[in-house]
Amino acid sequence: MKAVFCIIFFIGFGFYGIAQKPVERLNKSFIAYTIPEKDILPENVAYDPADASFYIGSTRKGKIIKRTKDGAYHDFAKPQQDGLHMIIGMKVDPIQRYLWVCSSGGSNLIGYNRKDKNEGRPAGIFKYDLQTGKLIKKYWIDIPGEVHFFNDIVLDTSGNLYATHMFSNPILYTIQNDNDELKVLTSLSEIKYPNGITISDNNTYLFIAHSEGILRIHIKTGKKQNIQYSADIDTTDNKGIDGLYFYKNSLIGIQPGKNSVKKFVLNTEQNTIIKTIPLEYNHPMMNNPTTGVLVDNELYYIANAQFGSFNKDGSLFSMEKLYEPTILKVKLDD
């Protein structure tokens, strides 16, 4: 997601004698659950297969909500606990029992008033113990005049972490199990706004969504190339992706600006999109869909982050103008 959030307005004008064009829809998603706290402005959701619980991050309150299997909600991390700012990308490590969290400064957060140019923007990655809820370690960057923003994270099967960092210095960071330190893996200066990140099933490639498409990185060699398209594929079709997920030799992408979820089928070499399959388009609950999490053969994703719900004076809309955050789910197989 971008720190300057995209605001999408739909304005309808009704005039006699002028028929409105119907909204094109493809609705395959179902409501998985809603969160009874309208003003959290969620960006990310994570899942723990050990107990079938979900974790939802708030950009507005800088907290993490846990939803248990029986549908109960409680704060896993309290507002701005441990120095949390906006909660962005999150991932559960089901083996080592960690919750990894990207947290970055930004205007969505209550009380945040720092100016990028003068004071810089802080960002970091937080490692929590899933069992106790306690912070294990914080990897924090806060340098005056520097704008930092950790966007999304992915784990390989050994629990090594990879994180996208955007804005003034696009970078791919890593935290490896053997040293537990935040380190630069490679510069991403060749792309703009690195966003969602995912990894191939065999841990060979990282795929990173950016403003102009999808970048593939060979983890061992560091070789980079933008994903190509078959001749009959619309080359604009995989732009503007926020959440990105690898599933059965395909990439699943959530596109906030298009109110859509798509499956991009890859060739055998995993360097070309050979087919695009729409999974969801203009669901009635969508208001800035952002990211999600794979659970078996379904994608659970945030339908209505509501990032545009601010008045001209910077205050959040009143509660009657907001909706309960909605998690939709859609099957990924035909």
Q: What report would you give on this structure?
A:
The chain has a single domain (30-331), classed as YVTN repeat-like/Quinoprotein amine dehydrogenase (Methylamine Dehydrogenase, Chain H, 7 Propeller), CATH 2.130.10. The protein has one helix and 25 strands. It has one helix at residues 116-119; strands at residues 30-34, 42-48, 53-58, 64-67, 73-77, 86-93, 98-104, 123-129, 135-141, 150-155, 161-165, 171-175, 182-187, 197-199, 205-210, 213-218, 224-226, 228-229, 244-247, 250-255, 260-266, 272-281, 292-295, 298-302, 326-331. Strands 18-22-21-20-19 form a five-stranded mixed beta sheet, with no helix packed on it. Strands 1-25-24-23 form a four-stranded antiparallel beta sheet, with no helix packed on it. A hairpin with a 5-residue loop joins strand 14 (197-199) and strand 15 (205-210). 43% of the residues are buried. The model is unreliable at 2-19 (pLDDT under 50).
